[in-house]
Recover the amino acids of this structure.
């Protein structure tokens, strides 16, 4: 993998990461790359959906909040929440489904900034997600941190994981742009919502939401953040998709999420 110090966070970006908990870079991916990646994710979504609907497909489960998840194509598939929807909401992991997605982990434009976001010079993949957020049907995702979802698999090591969100489409307030609470990462694990049946969502009543920022960004932009940033996204009720790829990385020498037991009952250890 070729690297470039020029791709590391600038002094200003490091200050922003420390202060706000995230860094935004625009024009990271070119128009040609975006066209290629959109074609790839649509092909993946179609193949995964067809494979999941075949006779004898992978097992399904209903999460505590009533939403449907299925295990197929060596991935967890979350189906859209809307009643009767046949759209895929999320596929995790996704990097094994096409070489181009696996290559994102080694892309210097992703890898180099993530070394600063993680705070480690040598990284390896932790997980990867394909978020489809379809036009009209794309569901919201309430306030949460990534930390609790990863804590139940790797414990306190979850604090050392950072994510890059690669937007394949323009992200707008109407189609479900990412919404963040700047500075929320400095408080560690956020109190969990006592009314959330899954036990993972943050308690909005305990958060200072006045400073929430909606990250309306052009396609090709990337947002980098760590495990403690509180964020959410609104539903997509627009006529345009808001697709994104999310590679997450960790210090080298640690197991991938898919290779460790996932024990959601451990979430009660958190505030």
């Amino acid at each position: 993998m070729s690297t470039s110090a020029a791709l590391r966070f600038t002094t200003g970006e490091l200050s922003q990461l420390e202060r706000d908990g995230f860094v935004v870079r625009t024009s990271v991916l070119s128009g040609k790359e975006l066209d290629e990646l959109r074609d790839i994710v649509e092909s993946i979504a179609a193949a995964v959906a067809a494979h999941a609907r075949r006779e004898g497909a992978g097992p399904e489960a209903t999460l505590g909040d009533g939403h449907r998840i299925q295990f197929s194509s060596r991935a967890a598939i979350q189906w859209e929440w809307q009643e009767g929807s046949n759209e895929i909401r999320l596929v995790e992991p996704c990097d094994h489904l096409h070489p181009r997605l696996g290559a994102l982990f080694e892309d210097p434009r992703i890898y180099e900034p993530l070394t600063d976001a993680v705070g480690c010079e040598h990284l390896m993949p932790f997980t990867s997600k394909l978020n489809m957020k379809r036009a009209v049907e794309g569901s919201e995702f309430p306030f949460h941190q990534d930390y609790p979802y990863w804590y139940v698999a790797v414990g306190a090591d979850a604090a050392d994981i950072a994510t890059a969100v690669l937007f394949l489409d323009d992200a707008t307030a109407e189609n479900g742009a990412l919404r963040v609470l700047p500075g929320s990462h400095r408080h560690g694990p956020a109190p969990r919502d006592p009314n959330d049946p899954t036990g993972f969502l943050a308690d909005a009543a305990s958060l200072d939401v006045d400073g929430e920022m909606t990250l309306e960004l052009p396609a090709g932009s990337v947002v980098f953040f760590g495990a403690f940033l509180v964020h959410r996204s609104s539903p997509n009720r627009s006529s345009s998709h808001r697709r994104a790829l999310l590679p997450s990385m960790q210090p080298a020498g640690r197991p991938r999420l898919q290779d460790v037991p996932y024990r959601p009952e451990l979430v009660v250890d958190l505030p």
